[in-house]
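In these records, each integer encodes one residue's backbone shape. Here is one protein:

___
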Amino acid sequence: MEVAHMRWRSFGVLVVATIGLMAGLPSSSLATSVPLPDSMAAIGDSITRATDACCFYGDHPGRSWSTGYVSDSISSHYERIRAANPGMTGNAHNDAVAGAKMANAASQAASAVSQQAEYVTILMGANDTCTSSPGTMTPVADFTNQFQGAMNKLEAGLPAGAHIFVASIPNIYRLWQVLHTNPLAQAVWWAAKICQSMLSPFNTSEDRAKVLEREKAFNDVLEQVCGQYSNCRFDGEAVFNYQFTADQVSKLDYFHPNISGQATLASVTWARSWWPGL
């Protein structure tokens, strides 16, 4: 019954939004038709764990674009919701795991369900693209089944009225574009074997094109599967299309977003979230 309640409540929100559009109401007015959550969970990988975002190597979840809580310039989704709804205070769970692939999404979804999160963010898939070589990337069919399984688990187990936000995978070809002429970045990528499917100095242009094509296919999957659920919102490839600069990339590994990158990620995703008018 709760699953059915969630679907009907989400359907009601869509009806209100449709009526609002017909009446010419601004998008910020429509955003308020979706109640603010009292709890949230983040599903993802090292980007959502804010790995190497600053200071020293390792995870810095307090600086995550999604559930970050450190007083800084990031303004995470959690912080934005908490500012408007104090009931969110202390109820953010970062279930992301550095190195996770879409195959791990279902287990993270199970955690979000056990936490009864009323809002779930998903940013996952970079590690399915960033592998040891173009030939070791996750097949699209497997990626699809894995994401579908995670979404089914969330749909069946989240509380009534819960909402999900899915971010597109950042453009890793863009990372190569902005940093491949930096000798230090190249040295770090090679020494640490970071995303060699795209960043290996021995890759051909055809190799990189193949990886970019696979990433685009993954983003298509995220959009299509998310679109099957009335309580799921995709970012319209806002993250993938964002033209980030070298100054927004960590100088610890020349791969992950730094503080500025996390702040931008929070801003870009929030603009496509359920409550952009806050």
User: Anything to note?
Assistant: The beta strands are 40-44, 92-94, 119-123, 163-166, 232-234. Residues 2-23 form the longest helix (22 residues). Residues 1-31 have pLDDT under 50 and may be disordered. The longest strand covers residues 40-44.
